[in-house]
């Protein structure tokens, strides 16, 4: 008994596929999703949060490269499998920038890099540091000495900036994804109940919506964050709990319209329950506007998270977020190494713009007047 929403959706997809701007924005969104999912596979620094520090290498320029010697720590182990690939490896080694390395007898001699035009003394460590961890002598230089390239240079702690930017994509994208999931779930349920039952239930729903709507989103998110604590998952929940009102208003309006349609009256005449009418008969016809507003909410969630991280109440260091990366390096805009602040800001700009453009194009494609 539902309206033929599938044919409308098919026509919208055909129209979108012919829109160059829509396809470019969709490509950017899918690229961000791919980078988010395989972030540690794409990053140079595969440690958790790309937090491996080397203060000697701080503020190195773009495309800087140097020899790196890895010294295994007490907790060193071969980290393989699903978890390290998707969530990063634990730091179980120390990275030392070196100028010269030589293996003699039972010792490893190396000359550490301490800065431009500075000479360091040659240091010696026993190869037992490696062999005690089950590493064969002939594999020491092969597996633990390498030329490391920093594609986008390093930050104030000598961390690989490219890797930090890649991992930051995951934080920002997942905040938008979780926030949209929470807001759509709450908004659809609340809006559907208010629009279908009307009367006192609708009055209560609208009162709650108006109260929440009257509070600025950023202030409400800050209040929730302060109440439940700072952190990675807390910011997901806080942003999601503030964005459901727009979804609820749209769904309520759609339900007020559809509940008077003939197919709904026919469903009531056949004795279908209210839950079936709401979720199986009316809700499929409301999907289009919900998708459009979800795209806008996705972009808004990324902006809110970046703002909170910039203020210090979002994702906490060393977790990289585009917002806190800007916070750490915004002073470089007027000094040197400007890319440390410009690149994360550019990432936010491009991703938010892509979501907004795609949302607008999707809205136009799903408009009956334009099909």
UniProtKB/TrEMBL annotation:
GO terms for biological process: transmembrane transport. Keywords: Cell membrane, Membrane, Transmembrane, Transmembrane helix, Transport. Pfam families: BPD_transp_1 (PF00528). InterPro entries: BP-dependent_transpt_permease (IPR050366), MetI-like (IPR000515), MetI-like_sf (IPR035906). The chain crosses the membrane at residues 20-43, 171-197, 204-226, 232-251, 282-304, 340-359. CDD domains: TM_PBP2. Its main location: membrane. One of its GO terms (cellular component) is plasma membrane. Residues 169-359 form the ABC transmembrane type-1 domain. Belongs to the binding-protein-dependent transport system permease family. This is Glutathione transport system permease protein gsiD. The lineage of its organism: Bacteria, Pseudomonadati, Bacteroidota, Flavobacteriia, Flavobacteriales.
């Amino acid at each position: 008994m539902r309206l033929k929403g599938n044919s409308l959706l098919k026509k919208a997809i055909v129209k979108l596929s012919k829109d160059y701007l829509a396809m470019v924005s969709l490509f950017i969104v899918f690229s961000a999703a791919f980078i988010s999912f395989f972030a540690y596979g794409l990053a140079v620094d595969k440690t958790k949060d790309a937090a491996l520090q080397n203060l000697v290498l701080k503020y190195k320029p773009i495309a800087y490269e140097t020899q790196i010697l890895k010294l295994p720590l007490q907790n060193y182990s071969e980290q393989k499998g699903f978890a390290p690939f998707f969530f990063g490896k634990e730091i179980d080694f120390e990275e030392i920038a070196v100028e010269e390395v030589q293996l003699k007898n039972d010792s490893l001699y190396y000359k550490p890099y301490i800065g431009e035009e500075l000479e360091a003394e040659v240091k010696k460590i026993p190869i037992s540091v490696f062999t005690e961890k089950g590493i064969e002598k002939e594999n020491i230089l092969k597996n633990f000495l390498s030329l490391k390239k920093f594609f986008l240079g390093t930050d104030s702690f000598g961390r690989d900036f490219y890797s930090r930017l890649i991992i930051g994509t995951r934080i920002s994208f997942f905040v938008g994804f979780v926030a949209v999931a929470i807001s759509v779930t709450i908004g659809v349920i609340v809006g559907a109940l208010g629009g279908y039952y009307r009367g006192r239930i609708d009055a209560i729903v609208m009162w709650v919506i108006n109260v929440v709507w009257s509070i600025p989103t950023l202030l409400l998110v800050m209040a929730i964050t302060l109440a439940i604590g700072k952190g990675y998952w807390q910011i997901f929940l806080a942003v999601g709990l503030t964005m459901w009102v727009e979804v609820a208003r749209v769904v309520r309006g759609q339900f007020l319209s559809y509940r008077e349609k003939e197919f709904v009256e026919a469903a009531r005449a056949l004795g279908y329950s209210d839950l079936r009418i709401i979720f199986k008969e009316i809700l499929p016809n409301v999907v289009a506007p919900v998708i459009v507003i979800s795209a806008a909410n996705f972009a808004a969630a990324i902006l809110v998270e970046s703002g909170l991280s910039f203020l210090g109440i979002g994702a906490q260091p060393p977790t990289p977020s585009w917002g806190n990366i800007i916070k750490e390096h915004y002073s470089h805009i007027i000094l040197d190494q400007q890319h440390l602040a410009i690149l994360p800001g550019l990432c936010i700009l491009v991703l938010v713009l892509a979501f907004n453009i795609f949302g607008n194009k999707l809205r136009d494609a799903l408009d009956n007047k334009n099909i």
